[in-house]
Amino acid sequence: MIINCAIIDDEPLAAGLLKSYADKTPFLNLVGTYGSAVEAMKEIRSNPVHLLFLDIQMPELSGIEFAKILPKETKVIFTTAFQQYAIESYKVAALDYLVKPISYEDFLKAANKALDWFSISQKQQTYAKDRFMYVKSDYKLVRVSLDDILYIEGLKDYIRFYMEDGTKVLSLMNLKKMEDYLPRPEFLRTHRSFIVHMPKVQCVDRFRIAFDDLFIPISESYKEDVQQYFDKHTLS
User: Fold this and answer.
1) Is 38 exposed, middle or buried (0-12, 13-18, 19+ CB in 10 A)?
2) How many whole angstroms separate alpha carbon 46 and alpha carbon 48?
3) pLDDT in tens, 106-133
4) What's the rounded Cα separation, in Å, for the pair 131 and 3?
5) Whole-model pTM above 0.85?
6) Which of 140-144, 164-168, 231-235 has the lowest mean pLDDT?
């Protein structure tokens, strides 16, 4: 996968260093370097990019302010000389926060984080559109239809799919990784060991999800997301 990226920094030396890093990173395609957010705004509107390496303290429009008006599909890695904006950066869903001087090692780690994010997002969109995935199970690739999943259980290094027809599929995978691939809020983590296909839920008993005689707990860590889902679908 190739990520189209741009650099926005009002310091020519800092921008030049980041450009040299981007140029030698195989999966990055640098489409522009800009001295301000205002300068970049027109170009990015007509030539969208996947990723911005964005300074924070800049004239006219700060990096934080600019990040708030970006399209949601454009992700940001902040590159700044100041540490105090870190909390604000997470409020605008930045992928990473690099403090100058930035080494190539740190740049590459952040870029790889972006690569992982876009790869997962691409697969998530594919699964949501096609409504199936293939998973490795007993040295085979087994087709799993998203529409037929009731819930998924995490078992240390394995996950088990429980299907509507009663079949089960065991696969070597981390539950957190599986959660990243599935469309939300159709699939929600309800507990550290369970992901539930929410449209399949027929009964909630004492804030436990009931599938026949099995009760799946809703832990405090995931209660807010699950409650929001039920609130949106409850007749009051």
Assistant:
1) middle
2) 6
3) 999 999 999 999 999 999 899 989 999 9
4) 26
5) no
6) 231-235
